[in-house]
Write a sequence for this structure.
């Protein structure tokens, strides 16, 4: 066995190159073996080793969509970012407990890893190393299954939306949602107080940012309802998991002009209560109401409908729209992602098509993507949020209601996701 002195006869640049292929924790262990090893890892002024460790074990953030709007390649602190990720890993695997500050630190780190994931290449779809690492870590930890403090609920909900529905074995995919969670989400999704002018009748906060807790409840209602569908329909469902949040992971992305991947064929699940049940849940005293969870747990007559629609969309000029309210604030427009306007057909189980139109725009936060859908009249409208990055396979989750927005109007969750143009057309179903 060679002595430490023999090893360090090798130029430090060569040692760093070798270390770049090691696990970060092993590099840390190596640095503690002697002073010379410590100097090789921590003393160089450049960030070559730290950059290579991130690129080998995660994704190159310079290739992420975030890089297109900033000079991230010039100001990215590779050393700090890698240490941040390793520290977050230790925090969530710590069985002795996590402080609120530590939990916030870890959650923000994990969301940044998702944001840094490389877009899907239409030529060769290579899995993301960073998302694979994060999925393994979240599967081992329990941070998404514990009750978070109020101020962290949005962060936990956002990460849950990205990951939680995939954190099960294939034969147990619907068992993840407990009856209690389903009831809680139904109570939230069908509570008419959660839809008003202040949140634009959608899953938003008053400042225009995404209400991820609302999105999670809408997703939970739909995902749980899929378990009630006959066996034939269980494979007709949105894609879930961290990989599906990557930019351009949806099929058939047509052109750069259509940055959101709007054009093409989509499937849309819509859920709703009978309007008499919806009114009774919100305004009557039955089952210790109004808005008591007993309405769903003790009411043997309660039924919830699930409808699957086929949608075909095409990007059009704004002046081609007839009914949609497409007002948007020019002050918050992203020049790289200008608003897109679309027109199309939605077809249900009866085979009859209805005209729909709407708009896609980048959110106020510069990251989230908002989708507004109207039918070809002035009756129905929908507001939704892209789950993940631009043109992600996870699709759009939101709420539908009327265009008039009168008090007491019906409301319900929807999930819209893109499929290939040759996706079977006989899978449109109406199930109650």
């Amino acid at each position: 066995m060679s002595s430490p002195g023999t090893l360090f006869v090798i130029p430090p640049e060569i040692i760093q190159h070798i270390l770049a292929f090691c696990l970060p924790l092993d590099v840390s262990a190596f640095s503690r073996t002697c002073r010379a090893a410590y100097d090789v890892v921590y003393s160089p002024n450049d960030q070559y080793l730290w950059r290579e460790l991130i690129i080998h074990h995660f994704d190159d953030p310079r290739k992420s969509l975030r890089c297109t709007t900033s000079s991230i390649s010039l100001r990215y602190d590779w050393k700090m970012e890698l240490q941040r990720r390793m520290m977050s890993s230790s925090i969530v695997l710590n069985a002795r407990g996590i402080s609120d500050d530590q939990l916030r630190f870890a959650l923000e780190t994990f969301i940044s890893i998702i944001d840094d994931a490389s877009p899907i290449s239409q030529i060769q779809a290579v899995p993301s190393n960073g998302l694979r690492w994060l999925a393994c870590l979240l599967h081992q930890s329990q941070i998404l299954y514990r009750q978070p403090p109020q101020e962290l609920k949005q962060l936990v909900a956002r990460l849950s939306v990205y990951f939680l529905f995939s954190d099960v074995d294939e034969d147990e995919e619907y068992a993840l949602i407990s009856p209690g969670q389903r009831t809680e989400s139904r109570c939230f999704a069908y509570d008419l107080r959660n839809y008003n002018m202040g949140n634009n009748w959608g899953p938003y906060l008053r400042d225009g940012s995404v209400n991820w807790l609302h999105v999670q409840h809408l997703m939970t209602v739909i995902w749980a309802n899929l378990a009630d569908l006959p066996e034939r329909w269980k494979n007709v469902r949105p894609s879930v998991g961290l990989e599906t949040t990557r930019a351009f992971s949806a099929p058939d992305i047509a052109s750069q002009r259509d940055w959101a991947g709007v054009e093409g064929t989509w499937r849309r699940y819509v859920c709703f209560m009978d309007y008499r049940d919806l009114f009774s849940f919100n305004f009557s005293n039955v089952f210790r109401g109004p808005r008591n969870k007993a309405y769903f747990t003790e009411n043997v007559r309660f039924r919830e409908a699930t409808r699957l629609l086929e949608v075909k969309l095409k990007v059009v000029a704004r002046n081609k729209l007839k009914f949609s309210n497409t007002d948007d604030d020019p002050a918050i427009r992203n020049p790289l992602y200008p608003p897109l306007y679309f027109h199309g057909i939605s077809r249900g189980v009866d085979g009859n098509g209805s005209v729909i139109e709407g708009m896609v725009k980048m959110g106020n936060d510069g990251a989230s993507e908002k989708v507004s859908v109207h039918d070809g009249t002035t009756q129905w409208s929908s507001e939704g949020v892209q789950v993940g990055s631009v043109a992600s396979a996870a699709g759009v989750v939101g709420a539908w209601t009327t265009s008039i927005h009168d008090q007491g109007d019906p409301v319900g969750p929807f999930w819209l996701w893109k499929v290939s143009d040759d996706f079977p057309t006989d899978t449109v179903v109406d199930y109650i």
